[in-house]
């Protein structure tokens, strides 16, 4: 290649240097193909021990990113053309050059075809996390078979996960001024939701993101670490820790918790308020704490029936949680996350920090707390009270 084309190639490479630092966790590989006449010479680059390893013409060398680009530029002098692919999660940057000039293109990552059965199962919904592009993550969390076919017993789970993404999609997009969105998954379990959100934010919305999963079980933390390794999701950290003791070492944008049992949901809410998260999204599970605490004599003729007493305890629990979030300056909405036919534990509490503390909401909270003679854990887990 002539000096003019190599100089232009060098300019494009300069733009990649900053990206290589900002997006290092999302890097997958580099493919480079030199051509002279009809002969092609291929090189392949991966990261190993924080160095870029290139296999080219039967030899292997390790470089920093700057050194790697210098090496590729120097080799370009010996060939008529170059095709350079910088591949990261969700994006391919293609740089092509010859003696006539150099150009750059941004491509979507390769998409897989959908089999006929899977297409028939999902035809009635416009999915946010689509079979095909999202096959790798959907296979890892068990929605798809190794062959890419949707499992008969997983379509409902797939719909639930995708609907969660739909319900917080707008919220994620509103954080457009953030270079990296940090999400804390409380009582994460095997972190299926975090993996799907990781895929969606980075590879669909093209936003950088970082995930922290907290759980008290060694087994689920180890399982989550293994899944992240299998997927090449380097922007995730999983920690065995008590939610009441965890102190984040970075700013948290969104706290999520899906079906954390009983007061584990309160622990997630308390942590979200303590770390001043911009948003908190929880889907509570069983509600035991207030069931044997509350008493409301005027409704005793109804509450003498156990099923009514349990359902009213659920209502009080989530109602007081929502009201206390309002007291801490969050705008709160409560929606049905999925159909009650799938599970009766189908309410989602969405809280977005919008203002300072709300004294009126706090007074209402204390009045109701006194009326029902209850002492919810959430209030104690925040470690501060609105004055």
TrEMBL record:
Origin superkingdom: Bacteria
Keyword Transferase listed: yes
Record's keyword terms, sorted: Methyltransferase, Transferase
Keyword Transferase: yes
Transmembrane segments: none
Gene Ontology BP annotations: methylation
Domain Methyltransferase intervals: 156-292
GO cellular component: cytoplasm
Gene Ontology MF terms: methyltransferase activity
Name this protein carries in UniProt: Methyltransferase domain-containing protein
């Amino acid at each position: 290649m002539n000096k003019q084309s190599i100089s232009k190639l060098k300019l494009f490479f300069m733009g990649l240097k900053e990206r290589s630092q900002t997006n290092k966790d999302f890097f997958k590989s580099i493919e480079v193909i030199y051509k002279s006449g009809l002969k092609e010479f291929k090189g392949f680059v991966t990261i190993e021990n924080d160095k870029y390893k290139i296999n080219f013409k039967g030899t292997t060398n390790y470089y920093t990113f700057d050194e790697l680009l210098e090496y590729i530029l120097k080799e370009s002098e010996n060939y008529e053309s170059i095709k350079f692919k910088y591949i990261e999660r969700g994006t391919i940057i293609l740089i092509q050059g010859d003696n006539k000039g150099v150009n750059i293109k941004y491509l979507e990552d390769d998409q897989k075809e959908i089999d006929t059965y899977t297409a028939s199962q999902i035809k009635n919904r416009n999915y946010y996390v689509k079979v095909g592009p999202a096959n790798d993550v959907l296979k890892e969390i068990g929605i798809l078979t190794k062959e890419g076919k949707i499992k008969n017993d997983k379509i409902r789970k797939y719909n639930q996960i995708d609907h969660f993404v739909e319900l917080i999609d707008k919220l994620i997009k509103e954080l457009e001024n953030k270079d990296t969105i940090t999400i804390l998954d409380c009582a994460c379990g095997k972190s299926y939701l975090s993996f799907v959100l990781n895929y969606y934010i980075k590879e669909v919305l093209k936003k950088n993101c970082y995930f922290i999963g907290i759980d008290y079980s060694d087994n689920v933390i180890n399982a989550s670490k293994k899944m992240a390794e299998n997927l090449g999701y380097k922007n995730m950290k999983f920690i065995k820790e008590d939610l009441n003791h965890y102190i984040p070492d970075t700013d948290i944008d969104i706290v999520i918790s899906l079906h954390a049992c009983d007061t584990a949901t309160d622990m997630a809410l308390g942590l979200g308020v303590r770390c001043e998260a911009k948003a908190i999204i929880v889907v509570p599970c069983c509600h035991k704490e207030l069931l044997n605490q509350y008493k409301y004599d005027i409704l005793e003729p109804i509450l003498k029936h156990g099923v009514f007493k349990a359902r009213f305890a659920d209502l009080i629990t989530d109602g007081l949680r929502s009201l206390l979030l309002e007291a801490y300056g969050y705008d709160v909405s409560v929606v049905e996350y999925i159909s009650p036919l799938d599970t009766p534990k189908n309410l989602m509490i969405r809280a977005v920090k919008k203002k300072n503390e709300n004294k009126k909401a706090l007074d209402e909270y204390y009045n109701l707390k006194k009326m029902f003679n209850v002492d919810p854990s959430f209030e104690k887990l925040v470690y501060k009270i609105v004055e």
